[in-house]
Structures are given as structure tokens and as C-alpha cells.
């Protein structure tokens, strides 16, 4: 690597890091505005015009608040957990292309920190899975039972939903023949978006991403009504802000993955075609990412939180079987195309097959009788018959 390439890489890293931090700060402002709109309120409007300086005020508040560390906490692991959360979420973004990076269309800007990595999606999944260590360490190092229970529940949720999320994209890899994100985009620019081939895989991946990012209706790690805050109960000031920053960075990364894997990345008919200028490609990709981020926020104020047994049951009893069925369907269609030398348009057979499986699973779930929850009843001992005791 010569000095020019090194300088370009360093500048790209600095720009991406600054853009991610600024985007996370102002996405919080956007989410508060969306919440205010849904709840018929005004939202932040005091600091600066339209409240646009509110994220800066919130950041200063995090920095200036008192740093409190519990006396019996493991101080090293207590400080390591938030750093690990934001570090893994940021590192996963290193291979995500936010613009055209193919050698065929040279651009004056490098639109990825590490472009054209042949195992890019595997790298993202591997690094993102390390976030579970930050949650476990944060809950255990706090030496707090609420935090410990929240860490256990959060780690079980993340590990469970990583399985259907990874299996849902296997069909994309089979049809594309590559794990390279840039090649996946190029294949969709020629043959059509993967959303039309595999809508079931798209829905499974989208649902799993909600659980991976701890977003409603799967925000069980932060269920204040049950856990008094979850695994970060004992965290305050900038340490809590780092956990928050890691979650929003992961939300941005997964939005890029949804746009790249299923919506063609920077491709859009009659606007950003292969060979066109790099600027419309970047704008199209960012528009798709913004659409998914706004979708995250709207869902937060639309669907109530799941119970934990419903959350785990959805992963193991619904999403994993459906993802297995989707992979088998893709394998059969791919094998028939290769053996009989069929046209690539035969991949559209996956659309009705996937929808049929999805409708069938929904009908079976609707007809299944709901198991009533057993209610525990406190029985008073003989010596307490005259006392008034609550029923649990």
C-alpha cells in the first residue's frame, strides 16, 4: 500500500466515524420527533431552531454527568462492556459499501473502508455477534441481580435470533454465488432485486434484525416495567451513552444490509443504472437506508412489546422452520436451473412458493389454540387466616 492509498483509507475512516456518530445523534432527534407526531405532541423544540441543537445538548449532558461505578462492581469489565458494544457495532460497518466501489466504475471517492471483501457479509455477522459479550459483561460486572437477569435474557434473545437471520440470507448467497456485498448489488442490478425472489427470506431477516437491535416489539433487554432497565441498570453518563450509541450504529448497519441484500443497494430503475454517475447511486442507497430507519421508528410506536416466551417461541418455532423451508426451496430451484440450463427468470418461481409457505404458516398459527397462562394462587397458612394477603 503506497502513501496515497494509506491517506485515502485514513481519511475514509475518519469521515465514516464522524458521519456515524453524527447520524446516531440526529437519528435520536428524528425518533423523538416521530414519537411526538405519533402521540400528537410537539417533540424537542427548545434548543436551537426546531430543536436541531438538542442532540448536542444531550451529548454534553452525557459527558458532564457524574461517572458512578458501583463499589462492588468489577471495574475493568464494567468499563470494558460499553466500549465493546460500540466498538463491535462500528467495526461491522467497515466492509459495508455506501456507494459504488467496483473497479469498472472508478469514482473520485472511496465508498467503503474495506471495499470488495470476498467474505464481507460473514465478517459483519461475526463481528456483530460479539455484541452479546458486551451485554453479558455489562450485566455480570455490575454485581446487580436486575442487571444480571437482564443480561441473561438479552444474550438468549440475541443468540436465538442470530440463527434465523443467518439462515435467511443463505438463499441470497446461493442465487448470487458470492459473499461479496458489491457483487450481490451488481447481480441485482442485472437480474432484479432479491426481494422479488425471496420475500419470505426478507421478512425473516427483517424480523430478526428487530430482535438483534433490541427494538420494539423485541426490546426485552430494556423492559423497564420488568427489569428496572435491564443489563445497563447501573450505568450512567457516557457509559450508558456508549451502549445507546452501539444500538443505533447497529441499526444503521442492518438498514444498509437490508437495502443491499434485498433491495438492490444503489440500483433503482431509470435513476441509478449500472454505469451511471456515482452521486445518484449514493443518494438512492441512502434513501433506502433512511426508509428502513424510519420503519424501525414507526414500528416502535405501533406494536406492543412481546412477552419473553412469545419472543423465544417466535424464533425457535416459527422463524427457524420457515428459514429452513426457504433454503430448501432455493436449493431445489437453483439445482433445476443449473442442471437443465434454464433461464435465470425461473428464479421467480421462488416468489409464489415463498408466499404459499408464509400464508400456510400464518393460517396454521391462527388455527392453533392458545394455551392459557396458569395463574399462581397464594394459599394462606393456617396461622394467617385472619390476615389480608394479596393474590399473585
Which SSEs are present, and which pair or pack?
Elements: H1 3-38, H2 54-64, H3 75-91, H4 120-129, H5 131-141, H6 145-168, H7 170-176, H8 181-191, H9 194-197, H10 199-212, H11 224-227, H12 237-262, H13 278-300, H14 308-340, H15 350-367
Helix pairs in contact: 1-2, 1-12, 2-12, 3-5, 3-12, 5-6, 6-10, 6-14, 7-14, 10-12, 10-14, 12-13, 14-15
Structure in words:
- The chain is mostly helical and 392 residues long.
- The protein folds into 2 domains: 1-64; 65-363, no CATH class.
- It has helices spanning 3-38, 54-64, 75-91, 120-129, 131-141, 145-168, 170-176, 181-191, 194-197, 199-212, 224-227, 237-262, 278-300, 308-340, 350-367.
- Helix 3 (75-91) packs parallel to helix 12 (237-262).
- The longest helix has 36 residues, at 3-38.
- The termini are far apart.
- Residues 387-392 have low confidence and may be disordered.
**H/E order of the elements?**
HHHHHHHHHHHHHHH
What's the end-to-end separation, in Å? 67 Å
Q: Give the % helix.
A: 55-70%
Overall pLDDT confidence: 82
Broad structural category: mainly alpha
Question: If you compute it from the alpha carbons, what radius of gyration comes out, rounded to the nearest whole angstrom?
Answer: 24 Å
The tally of beta strands, per DSSP, is: 0
- Main sheet? none
Oligomeric assembly? single chain
User: In what range is the share of β-strand residues?
Assistant: under 5%
- Ranges where pLDDT stays below 50 over 5 or more residues in a row are 387-392
> What is the overall number of helices?
15
Question: Can you tell me the number of structural domains?
Answer: 2
Amino acid at each position: 500500500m503506497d502513501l496515497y492509498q494509506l491517506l485515502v483509507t485514513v481519511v475514509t475512516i475518519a469521515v465514516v466515524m464522524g458521519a456515524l456518530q453524527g447520524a446516531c445523534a440526529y437519528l435520536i432527534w428524528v425518533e423523538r420527533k416521530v414519537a411526538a407526531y405519533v402521540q400528537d405532541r410537539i417533540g424537542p423544540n427548545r434548543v436551537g431552531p426546531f430543536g436541531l441543537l438538542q442532540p448536542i445538548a444531550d451529548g454534553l449532558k452525557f459527558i458532564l454527568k457524574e461517572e458512578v461505578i458501583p463499589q462492588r462492581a468489577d471495574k475493568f469489565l464494567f468499563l470494558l462492556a460499553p466500549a465493546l458494544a460500540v466498538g463491535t457495532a462500528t467495526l461491522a460497518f467497515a466492509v459495508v459499501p455506501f456507494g459504488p466501489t467496483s473497479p469498472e466504475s472508478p469514482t473520485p471517492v472511496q465508498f467503503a473502508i474495506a471495499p470488495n471483501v470476498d467474505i464481507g457479509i460473514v465478517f459483519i455477522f461475526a463481528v456483530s455477534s460479539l455484541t452479546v459479550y458486551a451485554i453479558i459483561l455489562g450485566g455480570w460486572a455490575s454485581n446487580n441481580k436486575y442487571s444480571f437477569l437482564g443480561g441473561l435474557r438479552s444474550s438468549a434473545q440475541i443468540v436465538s435470533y442470530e440463527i434465523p437471520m443467518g439462515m435467511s440470507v443463505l438463499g441470497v448467497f446461493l442465487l448470487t454465488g458470492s459473499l461479496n456485498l458489491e457483487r450481490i448489488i451488481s447481480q441485482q442490478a442485472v437480474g432484479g432485486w432479491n426481494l422479488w425472489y425471496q420475500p419470505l427470506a426478507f421478512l425473516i431477516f427483517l424480523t430478526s434484525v428487530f430482535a438483534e437491535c433490541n427494538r420494539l416489539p423485541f426490546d426485552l433487554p430494556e423492559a423497564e416495567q420488568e427489569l428496572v432497565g435491564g443489563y445497563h441498570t447501573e450505568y450512567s453518563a457516557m457509559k450508558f451513552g456508549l451502549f445507546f450509541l452501539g444500538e443505533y450504529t447497529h441499526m444503521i448497519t442492518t438498514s444498509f444490509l437490508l437495502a443491499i441484500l434485498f433491495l438492490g443497494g444503489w440500483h433503482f430503475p431509470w435513476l441509478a443504472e449500472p454505469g451511471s454517475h456515482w452521486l445518484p447511486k449514493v443518494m438512492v442507497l441512502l434513501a433506502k437506508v433512511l426508509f428502513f430507519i424510519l420503519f424501525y421508528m414507526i414500528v416502535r410506536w405501533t406494536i406492543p412489546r412481546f412477552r419473553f416466551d412469545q419472543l423465544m417461541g417466535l424464533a425457535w418455532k416459527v422463524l427457524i422452520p420457515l428459514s429452513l423451508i426457504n433454503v430448501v426451496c432455493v436449493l431445489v430451484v437453483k439445482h433445476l436451473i443449473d442442471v437443465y440450463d434454464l433461464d435465470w427468470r425461473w428464479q421467480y418461481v421462488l416468489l409464489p412458493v415463498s408466499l404459499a409457505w408464509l400464508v400456510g404458516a400464518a393460517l396454521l398459527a391462527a388455527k392453533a389454540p392458545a394455551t392459557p397462562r396458569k395463574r399462581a394462587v397464594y394459599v394462606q397458612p393456617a396461622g394467617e387466616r385472619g390476615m389480608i394477603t394479596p393474590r399473585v
